[in-house]
Amino acid sequence: MNNREIIAGVLKRDFRSIARAITIVESFPESSREISAELYALSGKAQVIGVTGSPGAGKSTLVDKLISKFRADQKRVAVLAVDPTSPFSGGAILGDRIRMDRSSEDDTVFIRSMATRGALGGLPRAAFEAVTVLDAAGFDIIIIETVGVGQVEVDVVKICDTCLVVLVPGMGDTVQVFKAGILEIADIFVINKSERDGVELLHRDLNLLLSLDERAEAAWQKAIIRTNALNSSGVDQLVAKIYEHRTWYFSDSSRKIRRERSIKDVIVRMYCDQLIKRLETVNPERFSEIILHCQEKKIDPFLAVEELLKLKLFNQSNP
Ligand SMILES: Nc1nc2c(ncn2[C@@H]2O[C@H](COP(=O)(O)OP(=O)(O)O)[C@@H](O)[C@H]2O)c(=O)[nH]1
Ligand SMILES: [Mg+2]
Prior knowledge:
By secondary structure, the chain is of the alpha/beta class. It is built from 14 helices and 7 strands. The protein has a 7-stranded parallel sheet, with helices on both faces. The relative contact order is 0.12. The chain binds guanosine-5'-diphosphate and magnesium ion.
């Protein structure tokens, strides 16, 4: 399949083409350019939902249930699992998986995992481009499941429109939420496994946390929803909240601000990648020499950077 065929396939929502396009943006960013350029202009309609939280919090189980609900509402759903361990073992998905393999016209659920390591130019860029592909393909809802609350996860979640943070009573991860800067980007807190002891305590902790959030925009009241992903209790309320957020988001200027921020993130990241590549290819001898001088304490790192900045990285004809 050449890029033309892939693009045409993506626009027809052909699953094989979509999978191919995502592989390209993930592993061959150089050749993804043509695909991205064309599809980017056609993207922007989907609601991108980030689902983050500690391993074992029940994200995948919850995503399974969300998919069923969205499908019942006639939505086309795509899932990017940024977590190789995500099983998606739920019955609803199993059926979808089988159908996915057939890649027939009426397929509505696309599931794909993305490697946390090895995505050239970083995972957030790859995820951003994968979202572009799925969005242009006409999925109404794109869910990104990402494990943990580390920096990479936060960066991935930044590209989402609606951010769900999944917490579990008794795991003490409210502190994590605070530390990792998740609080600012969370739109909906999900207390999963809410049948467990400690649910009231966690709910109270979260309320307290929210009341301390200085940046709380009056516009969107961050919500706390209790769920039990095993028996689906609370899932309807969660979905209602997700739709509510979409309505608000698409009508409020916050969307613009958030998109601006995430696009800036992605551009800056790509810019840095280019810079590093140039450093390594345009004048590798000088680059090595500067590193060596720094290592030998002839110059300090600040001076090393100044030396690097003097290199003419972009005025030369080599690519
Ligand atoms: N008791 C209980 N177990 C749950 C609930 N949600 C998920 N689980 C279980 O928690 C474990 C981890 O779930 P999983 O969805 O893989 O978590 P993830 O790592 O966050 O994706 C699985 O054994 C699930 O069956 C829940 O609401 N209550
Ligand atoms: Mg999972």
